[in-house]
């Protein structure tokens, strides 16, 4: 199970072994940033072999949707090549699951991460990826750290996967 918070500047990854990673890219690298994200995520898929990836869905803000969509596209291409199913979670569902509040800000998401893990992590990209992985664990009937699973029935099952809520 892996969680991915796609972003052109800093994509957060939560891997099956519990490790967290951020793929940071520089604006000066322009479209090569997509190649870096694709290559790094591909390497993670090869070494971590997740059976499912839960990824944050596109934001509703039209300006950022196109940019995030490009990042999501290169990651989806790698998932297809590795035959890894994926599910998409909208930000409000993720926030509700992690904190009990669908409008939680980054500060609250970080605080709930610390509460759940007894660890401090100031990288909100990694923390969002952690919570996305937790959503996947909950959806597949595994132990998780979510505060509220009441809205997870909104998450569409990928082909070949049955949620165990």
UniProtKB/TrEMBL annotation:
<keyword id="KW-0233">DNA recombination</keyword>
<dbReference type="Pfam" id="PF02075">
    <property type="entry name" value="RuvC"/>
</dbReference>
<keyword id="KW-0227">DNA damage</keyword>
<protein>
    <submittedName>
        <fullName>Uncharacterized protein</fullName>
    </submittedName>
</protein>
<keyword id="KW-0238">DNA-binding</keyword>
<dbReference type="GO" id="GO:0003677">
    <property type="term" value="F:DNA binding"/>
</dbReference>
<keyword id="KW-0234">DNA repair</keyword>
<keyword id="KW-0460">Magnesium</keyword>
<dbReference type="InterPro" id="IPR012337">
    <property type="entry name" value="RNaseH-like_sf"/>
</dbReference>
<dbReference type="InterPro" id="IPR036397">
    <property type="entry name" value="RNaseH_sf"/>
</dbReference>
<comment type="similarity">
    <text>Belongs to the RuvC family.</text>
</comment>
<dbReference type="InterPro" id="IPR002176">
    <property type="entry name" value="X-over_junc_endoDNase_RuvC"/>
</dbReference>
<dbReference type="GO" id="GO:0006310">
    <property type="term" value="P:DNA recombination"/>
</dbReference>
<dbReference type="GO" id="GO:0006281">
    <property type="term" value="P:DNA repair"/>
</dbReference>
<dbReference type="GO" id="GO:0004520">
    <property type="term" value="F:DNA endonuclease activity"/>
</dbReference>
């Amino acid at each position: 199970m892996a969680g991915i918070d796609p972003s052109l500047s800093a994509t957060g990854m939560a891997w099956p072994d519990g490790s967290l990673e951020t793929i940071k890219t520089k604006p000066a690298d322009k479209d090569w940033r997509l190649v870096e994200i694709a290559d790094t995520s591909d390497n993670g898929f090869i070494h971590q072999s997740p059976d499912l990836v839960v990824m944050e869905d596109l934001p509703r803000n039209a300006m950022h949707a196109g940019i995030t969509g490009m990042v999501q596209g290169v990651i989806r291409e790698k998932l297809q090549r590795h035959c890894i199913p994926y599910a998409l979670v909208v930000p409000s569902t993720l926030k509700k699951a992690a904190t009990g509040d669908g409008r939680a800000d980054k500060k609250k998401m970080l605080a709930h991460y610390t509460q759940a893990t007894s660890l401090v992590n100031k990288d909100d990209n990694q923390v969002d990826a952690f919570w996305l992985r937790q959503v996947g664990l909950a959806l597949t009937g595994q132990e998780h750290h979510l505060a509220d699973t009441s809205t997870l029935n909104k998450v569409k099952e990928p082909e070949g996967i049955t949620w165990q809520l």
